[in-house]
Amino acid sequence: MKVKKDNSGSLKIVAGRIVMGFAVIGLVAVSAPVMADETEATPAVEELSPDTYEKLKTFSEILSLVEGNYVEDVNIDDLIDGAIRGMVKALDPHTSYMPPKSFKEMMVDTSGKFGGLGIEISMRKGLLTVVSPIEGTPAYEAGIQAGDKIIKIEDESTLDMSLSDAVARLRGNVGTPINITIFRETMDQPKQVRIVRDIIKVQSVKSKVYRGDIGYVKIRSFSKTTSADLDKALDQLEKQGITKLVLDVRNNPGGLLNQAVEVTDRFLDRESLIVYTKGRNEEQNMRFTTHDKVNRVNYPMIVLVNGGSASASEIVAGALQDLGRAVILGTNSFGKGSVQTIIPLSDGSALRLTTARYYTPSGRVIQENGIKPDIIVEMPLVSEEEESDEEADKEPAEKQRLRKFLREKDLKKHLKGKESIEIQGDDSSAEPQDEKALALEATLEEDLRKDIQLQQAVALLSGWEVMKKTIKTHSAGAKTTENEKISMNR
Asked: Cα separation of 353 and 38, whole Å?
């Protein structure tokens, strides 16, 4: 990864904070949906203008009046903290104030010390919203979905709750339960869900092979081992003879910026721009490009994205789309394209401040806009009523599902084909069917049946070579016809 800066100022990438969603809170509880870069800095503080001093004078007067005349005794520290929180809340959902205790908690490696739910959360239009559940975690097993609104934590409303407060309430000791009340579009009324906290261990990369030569790589998050895990997965897939690739970053809330860049690097030519940032100050302007130290992968590619693909996921998808390296399929991504800088303060607290925006190689702004797929494929919404109806009609549905794996030759008293008649009675050359291989194939086909976006991606890649040959054949035929016309004209 090459990082180019517009001046000589340094910018330290912090790996192990709320960083990119997973290092602290994301792995052990929940987090904001996730910066693809969180930095630590101590910028110069500019002098305040005379108008600002006048406003601070007004603030001081109000503070004095409240302290001396409010109906009950007040805690000045709480009032000032509240004022600071209110100030940063007026900026954007990802800027926040961390009191000393919160800042210390963020600095501590909490692996094995705190329990979590396994969800990534954000504020959307003032509502605490699930960006994505992490597969295999308590939240995922409890049925929490991307887009769910968390309207209560225990008996407390989240309507006026800050993101950091929500994180603090959702985090807790391993084995302890918590009740959250969620609401989603398909529900008639909110639903309370009980989840038992656990240590969240996430395998960031997993892989499969579909239809014999189509590799599938799922990246759940961009943690510190993601690029290394991706290399292992790609090596394994290459040994299995793949010729095409599906890269799945759906419901991936993001992670470490350097990992997003390194993952993208595997699929692009050398000296290609991957992403750049622009901020108010020159030191926030950076450019990230590919380098020549990795093994490049040149398979035809489709990248799967959805509304749960945020931050680092959008950097990968945006770069591959802009540079014509992959087809993006799915639904519009989340739109988290801002950089947060952690600024320690004199009293042990810290300010987490949004300082820049991310841009794709062509100059598109990721923030708010997200990445729009080349091919839009919506996942069907299944309401609880539809699920009940399907359960009631289970036997016919099961029969229909089994028919996908049955052919004419499997039917009782089926008519023999010519080839079957010729080899009838001679089973010496017939190879026994591998039951494990058949079971795996059936499982993979079931994956495709349940996932229409993956199904479409595999279908498109399955026809890739056919389309190339057909297009070449037609092109050659068209040239021949044109040459014949020219010859005849002569």
From this structure: 9
